[in-house]
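agent> fetching stored inputs for the zinc ion docking request
agent> found them:
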Amino acid sequence: MRLASINGRLTVLTPGGDAVDVSEETGGRFSPLIQECYGRWGELRDAAGALERRKGRPLAGIGPEEFGCPAPEPRQVFAVGLNYAAHAAEASLAVPEDLTVFTKFATSLAGPYGTIALPPGTVDWEVELVVVIGDGGHRIPADRAWEHVAGLTAGQDLSERTMQSAGPAPQYSLAKSFSGFGPMGPVVVTPDEFEDPDSIDLACSVNGEQVQKGNTSDMVFPVPEIIARLSAVTPLLPGDVIFTGTPAGVGVGRSPQRFLAPGDALVTVVQGVGEMRHRLRGPE
Ligand code: ZN
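agent> prediction call returned; pasting tokens
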């Protein structure tokens, strides 16, 4: 199943290329707000087969500005740092022996298309696979972890490196939470739609030049292990979001270093999900 928030309404994208409004097509049984569907994940999965046979608006006629963030109001946002060995190496940091976790504050989440204002400093790109939790749980074993995943989407963990590294300890959470620094989308795709959900290509480009390319099979802690280790500490709740780390190729690891500038076009691609497109602009 492929889900999106289109004009603020929970929508199923059918194999036939239609966008079906879930609330309308179920007589109001489901809320139009996409965040609420993750709390009723089993019911939505049961309804998916019928919804995918309905006719709706042709997806081809839907403009990018109509797509919103597919998990806009999670109660918890987790982000994993240094989860690809080649990225840890370019950051001159050791591969961690346990998860390195921070948050992106929920107000930084944004939709899959549009413009993002650059704050002062040095803003860097980080393409990431993003997990959205369906059925929550505490102490989820790794071998049951995929059962708790509603779906996967693309994300950018945009990062202001100057603030991030200014103090005596890394300031990850705040430096990665400026407005618009957590775009996600355009769709949430259930794990069964992937040939192998543990091996997904991801990439990003700036002004048409590919700057990152990776595969999630190179993660230090794969998705099931992330879920097991996070939920060993804190229960995962329906609709929670997990940014799973970025592969090599970020701007701060380059020689010379390179950061985003006003006017840059940032394209973020996750295999099986699609692509996000953003334009950077100067501060207001
Ligand atoms: Zn990251």
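agent> quick read of the result: Helices lie at 22-25, 34-37, 41-51, 85-90, 161-164, 172-175, 223-233.
agent> awaiting further instructions
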